[in-house]
Records
---
Amino acid sequence: MKYISTRGQSPALSFTEILLGGLAPDGGLYLPEQYPQLSDADLTRLRGMNYRDLAFSILSLLADDIPPADLRAIVDKTYRADVYAYARPEQNAEDITPTLKLEDNLYLLSLSNGPTLAFKDMAMQLLGNLFEYVLAKKGETTNILGATSGDTGSAAEYAMRGKKGVKVFMLSPHKKMSRFQTAQMFSLQDENIFNIAVNGVFDDAQDIVKAVSNDAAFKARNKIGAVNSINWARVAAQVVYYFKGYFAVTRSNTEKVSFAVPSGNFGNVCAGHVARMMGLPIDKLVVATNENDVLDEFFKTGVYRPRGSANTYHTSSPSMDISKASNFERFVFDLTGRDAAKVRALWSKVDQGGAFDLNEDGLFAQVADYGFVSGSSNHAARMQTIRETQAKYGVTIDTHTADGLKVALQVREPAIPMLVLETALPVKFEDAIQEALGHKPERPASLQGLEDLPQRFEVMDADVQAIKQFIVDHTAD
Ligand SMILES: Cc1ncc(COP(=O)(O)O)c(C=O)c1O
Ligand SMILES: N[C@@H](CCOP(=O)(O)O)C(=O)O
């Protein structure tokens, strides 16, 4: 299996060759040259597997240059009940991503039972172990540069803290994450972790990561690695739980299900798209946004119009305060029939601050063939959904999951099971839950007092040169 760039001007490489990096050298994103195809017999074989067996079966199709015994060991070390231990009392932590039935044909797919209480742990714990394995094999080190709106950062730092040969430089939007998210990251005192709070929004931080990734000489000299979902391995790891969710709520491969995905950078739902392209019987992929509704606008109109920092709102589902959805390029590459020249032309407009309209050449008409539908939410709807979910099902959900559920309820078809991806646990957004329910969500004993711990972070402007210098200063031997 080789990986190619959406911009078509980089050499095709294997999984381990692209593992540590982010963007391809031509500025594009990697995708498999061809998606592996699963037959009905394959699906029957996968049905009933536990998470580890399923993850190994699917990842061995995508990471086929890792010897099977090594991949097996990495997967077994990653997907353990004691790592994904925050399952609800009525759930079995051994399931790793258990489903929670709300009513007939309506489920939560619990993805946030890992160490940092967000779905990012599902991929990031694997990346931590994969990075360690590949770096040891190559005798190399890496300096990870990442951007976070609240969850990628802590998931990456918990996965990489104390790992030999790895330093993490994590950019976050200053004062725009929840108190819990901020404390989760900034209270880490590990010497290999550097938190940089950037004056700006998440997109400013993500732009810096991309600018550094596009500077080939700096990237090579300073061994820059990536853990954002521009890194293919993040998406690959997330493909697995779409299969797990599908098998959990169906009895035969003739049944279809839909997934509602709270979306920002389009990484999570892109993994659903990949699962569908591999042959998983998915009916709809529901893209749910918050007030930052660039993706909803696209799926409704065909116009992709990323917004600038001034028009990116700070909301009560802050991890989705994103206006430039990195992984959207992966989908558009498939939509154009993998026409890299077309993708280059579209993104040359985006990279200059512009927009594009896929109605112009008839491409938008084909979007429905990929199962995408969309909707958006806002603060009032989020509060109401949290209240109604508590009242009707006795389940507390976080603000991002509430956006997903709100849109799912609008678009679902009664006969088709709908799985709403639970992308974070409510305790991460205590103030919003307090506002919605009049009381705080339950907090595990191990996380009491998190916000009172001493914090270590730098505040910097969104200045690429200054960030590069910071990395150089903190990696000199
Ligand atoms: C809690 C939460 N929900 C949803 C999202 C959106 O996921 P994606 O960026 O993969 O679309 C994120 C972060 O991106 C998140 O942290
Ligand atoms: N929501 C994310 C931001 C997007 O990051 P990605 O790594 O998934 O691209 C966050 O919480 O940091």
Note: The mean pLDDT is 97.
---
Amino acid sequence: MNTLTDLANTIEERAKADPESSWTAKLLAKGPEKCAEKFGEEAIEAIIEAVKDNREGLISESADVLFHLLVMLQSRNVALDEVLNELARRQGTSGIAEKASRPKS
Ligand SMILES: N=c1c2ncn([C@@H]3O[C@H](COP(=O)(O)OP(=O)(O)OP(=O)(O)O)[C@@H](O)[C@H]3O)c2ncn1[C@@H]1O[C@H](COP(=O)(O)O)[C@@H](O)[C@H]1O
């Protein structure tokens, strides 16, 4: 099992934990909208580090982004595996070819 899968499992367990004892439980108890807001904040912090070309900051903020993405998914009962399956489905399809195949709007 990889680190991301381990973390997703921990987050799923924390959904039943006491919000006083777990950051994850506390955030999940605030609801999906708060989880989404927190993910957005962390994404912006990662963007700032990328623009500043701060390598250490980008690594640290990216870890926050992944953690908060998993919490947001948990808040809407979406399993990490469902996202990984979607990525696997896309493997081998060029992004340029996929975009060209979309119906014209
Ligand atoms: N990976 C993480 C992780 N990354 C970030 N964070 C927390 O996310 C919070 C967000 O940090 P911020 O500074 O943005 O938040 P803040 O300023 O305190 O919050 P605001 O009041 O500003 O919204 C901090 O409290 C971090 O400690 C994490 N908390 C937990 N985990 C993992 O989740 C596991 C379970 O943690 P608990 O749920 O706390 O038991 C841990 O063992 C870790 O593996």
Note: The chain has a mean pLDDT of 94.
---
Amino acid sequence: MTIPSFVIGIAGGTGAGKTTVSRLITENVGESVTRIPLDNYYNDLSHLDMEEREEVNYDHPSAFEWDLLREQLTDLLEGRAVDMPQYDFSIHNRKDERVRVEPTDVIILEGILALYDEEINDMMDLCLYVETDADVRILRRIQRDVVDRGRDLEGVMNQYLSTVKPMHEQFIEPSKKHADLIIPEGANSVAVNILEEKVQAEAAGETGRDWERKDFEKRLSENVGVESSED
Ligand SMILES: Nc1ncnc2c1ncn2[C@@H]1O[C@H](COP(=O)(O)OP(=O)(O)O)[C@@H](O)[C@H]1O
Ligand SMILES: Nc1ccn([C@@H]2O[C@H](COP(=O)(O)O)[C@@H](O)[C@H]2O)c(=O)n1
């Protein structure tokens, strides 16, 4: 593999389509890519009981263990394997077991605050922000939280109004300014195809790490549906 790895950050609001974009652009590259959900770095809350964990603001930056993420990302970038924590949404806490993750040519960090931390941003080669209207995102979130995460509708609505929406406005939306590219409507096919091509080239070692980002951005901005954040 090539050291350092090529690191992509994918941020955006809840339900924007971050996971979907990340999955689609890495679909055909096999094991050359590691996808890291930021959720894995939620603080260990084993010292709290379930009722207390239910009250935590999971959309505030303080909910994450940034030191551990910086340390593990550095290790991966420099070619060392890490034992990554895993997250269980049903208990609002980390699982007991960690999973060994080997370094790969491409690393994708994906999560609501993936572009929040300056030091982590400095480690990234390509910063993306997935932008989708809030009404679409909340509808997706209701469906996901009720169906997949075992939450009740009233709880999802309360959480959205009390923490998810205000934290989005205070921290997540403003992190968009760190993006090299903004992807409207989430997994739009033009953006996905071009990014997939880029990931495949990096995974195959076809580009140096001193790739011409500006050329790539220019190509993207020439396509309908993809904006450069520097416009
Ligand atoms: N472009 C899209 N069109 C339709 N549905 C989408 C699109 N992108 C994502 N979804 C759906 O929306 C839900 C949330 O998407 P996901 O990628 O998990 O968002 P995020 O990771 O940003 O929270 C999923 O059910 C997913 O299938
Ligand atoms: N115990 C938890 C931890 C996080 N959340 C919510 O998850 C959202 C982030 O995940 P996305 O896939 O939607 O980006 C975030 O908005 C947290 O509110 C939770 O509900 N419970």
Note: Residues 14-15, 18, 39, 42, 58-59, 89, 92, 111-112, 164 surround L45E5XJ5 (ligand 2) (CB under 6 Å).
